[in-house]
Amino acid sequence: MRIDAVIIAVILILLLWWMHQRTRNAIRKKRRAMYDDCLPLFTDIDITQDDVNYPVLRARYNSLEIVIEPLVDHIAVRKIPVLWLMVTLKSPVPYKSTLDYLVRPHNTEFYSPSTNLQHRLDVPQDWPQHATLRTNDVENTPPIDIVGCCVSRVFEDPKYKELLITPKGIRIVYLVDEALRSHYMVLRQLMFENDHLDNMLVKRLIDILIQLHGDLSSNTEQLANNKVEND
User: Fold this and answer.
1) Alpha helix locations (H) across 123-198?
2) C-alpha–C-alpha distance, residues 170 and 88, integer Å
3) What are the sequence ranges of the domains in the chain?
4) Mapping DSSP to helix (H, G, I), strand (E, B) and coil, where does residue 190 land?
5) CA dist., res. 180 & res. 231, Å (int)
6) pLDDT tens by residue, 6-51
7) What sign for the dihedral angle of Cα 220, 90, 35, 42?
8) Average pLDDT in the 209-227 region?
9) Residues 100, 116, 83, 58: is their CA dihedral positive or negative?
């Protein structure tokens, strides 16, 4: 092989490697910037990013611990991949069981614990009905009427996917965007056009969790006070 051909081949390989790295760096930078607009909401901010994946934000919102984790879902067959946003309030809930409400289930929700919860409950009539409501402990489930005040108000919006209540905190899952069909169908590239998080959206999701947490805690306190009065 002639030396000039070898040199050209090496140059082409280096060029392709450089273009690949440049593209990955651009994707990493764009995805890391998804929180830029909502950072003023938080203190004690910690953002971690694994290579080109979407970064996870851990921070405090009015002294409360919040975790925001974007999640790309491309498991379902014959469906355009979507970008979910999992927002978690990490604060103890005064109930021993886990309660999960999952709308439009496809049995591909790998991020949800729903299928691992043994007991299936009837979905109340005033909640969206194409859904599952499950728990691991029927006797210690958070009050359905209190949870329903949140569900019936919030889940009218089809972008809301899941509400998870555990003894350690509350999580809500929200649809941020669907992948660009042209890029995915032709090039199999996962590109999201609207993955930059809006300040008001993030605030709304967190405030939903805080209100529900407060309602559940207040109910426990009221029951305790009633018990003391009756004794």
Assistant:
1) 144-154, 181-182
2) 6
3) 69-230
4) coil
5) 62
6) 777 777 777 777 666 666 666 678 888 899 999 999 999 999 988 7
7) positive
8) 74
9) positive
CB 183 within 8 A of CB 189: yes
Alpha-carbon gap, residue 188 to 143, rounded angstroms: 44
pLDDT of residue 7: 74
- C-beta separation of 146 from 221 below 8 A: no
| 3-class DSSP assignment, residue 163 | strand
pTM: 0.83
Q: By three-state DSSP, how is residue 184 classified?
A: helix
Query: Which residue, among 44, 40, 50, has the nearest Cα to 70 in the 3D structure?
Result: 50
The 10s digit of each residue's pLDDT in 78-103 is: 577 889 999 999 999 999 999 999 99
Which residues touch 174 (CB under 8 Å, ≥6 apart)?
84, 85, 87, 159, 160, 161, 201, 205
CA distance 82 to 192: 8
Residue with the two structure tokens 């426990």: 220
CA separation for the pair 222, 112 (Å, rounded): 31
Mean pLDDT value across residues 191-215? 92
Collapsing DSSP states into helix, strand and coil, what is residue 214?
A: helix
Task: Answer yes or no: are the C-beta atoms of 87 and 185 closer than 8 Å.
Answer: no
Label each residue of 111-137 as H, E or C.
CCCHHHCCEEECCCCCCCCCEEEEECC
The pLDDT score that the predictor gives to residue 185 is: 43
At residue 178, the pLDDT reads 84
